[in-house]
Amino acid sequence: GNSVTQMEGPVTLSEEAFLTINCTYTATGYPSLFWYVQYPGEGLQLLLKATKADDKGSNKGFEATYRKETTSFHLEKGSVQVSDSAVYFCALDLNNNDMRFGAGTRLTVKP
Amino acid sequence: DSGVTQTPKHLITATGQRVTLRCSPRSGDLSVYWYQQSLDQGLQFLIQYYNGEERAKGNILERFSAQQFPDLHSELNLSSLELGDSALYFCASSVGTAPGELFFGEGSRLTVL
Q1: Closest C-alpha among A58, A61, A56, A59 to residue A77
Q2: Cβ contacts of residue A63 below 8 Å, gap of 6+?
Q3: Residues in chain A closer than 8 A to B33 (CB atoms)
Q4: Which of B26, B102, B106, B108 to mutate: most A Cβ within 10 Å?
Q5: What is the CA radius of gyration of chain A?
Q6: From the CA of B61, how many Å to the nearest CA of chain A?
Q7: Nearest residue to A107 via CA among A42, A23, A35, A39
Q8: B81/chain A closest Cα distance in angstroms
Q9: Cβ–Cβ below 8 Å for B106 and A43
Q10: pLDDT tens figures, B16-42
């Protein structure tokens, strides 16, 4: 079936460190891929998205590239800040009314 | 502020009881989605409504039901509550029938004692 697998957390980094959160997917069609972020006490909000192979989504210094050959959509940021501490969710949408989310990866950034 | 409003924010109740969670979608959005977030199962899709009609069903228990009203607000009814139903319930909305970008409310935290 269609699913998303994220690297398990929690991830703890020091400020200005490089971040990678791995995400791979299984899908029968051609999904759109998303990263959502959940800050403490809030709902999820869209961070970035990519709708076709080789597209790169970017926002707030975060980037992810839709890799069809490796079925991946890894999230990266060159220099994390304390304010990036949150839970990050990878998700896929096959345009069939069922967006599948990964389990979420908790990131803590220490000063 | 996503524009999606959920009430109540917190709810504590006992096993066997029934509760109703309410969601007002973002202005102009016709689709409403309900998700359950628990520690051990992540974010699970429950059900989607589009313009008053049920559009898709996910892992929703028979004890749970939902509806979307003509003014587009939605209610999720949870009955015969069990301890395992304790979770954060999110409502999300989108413009069209396919998720695309979802706008989430802040969630309703349900605790079943």
Answers
A1: A61
A2: A48, A56, A57, A75, A76, A77
A3: 99
A4: B102
A5: 13
A6: 17
A7: A39
A8: 24
A9: yes
A10: 999 999 999 999 999 999 999 987 667
Type of residue numbered A9: G
Buried/exposed A6-23: b ≥16 CB within 10 Å, e otherwise: bbeeebebeeeeebebbb
> Which chain B residues touch A97 with a CB distance below 8 Å?
48, 55-56, 97-99
Amino acid identity of residue A16, one-letter, is E
Contact call for A43 and B4, based on CB within 8 A = yes
CA-based radius of gyration for chain B: 13
**Which chain A residue's Cα is nearest to B50?**
A97
Q: Which residues contact B29 (CB under 8 A, 6 or more apart)?
A: B72, B93, B94, B95, B103
Could you state, in chain order, the average pLDDT of each consecutive group of 10 residues for chain A (111 residues)?
86 97 91 93 92 94 96 97 96 77 94 95
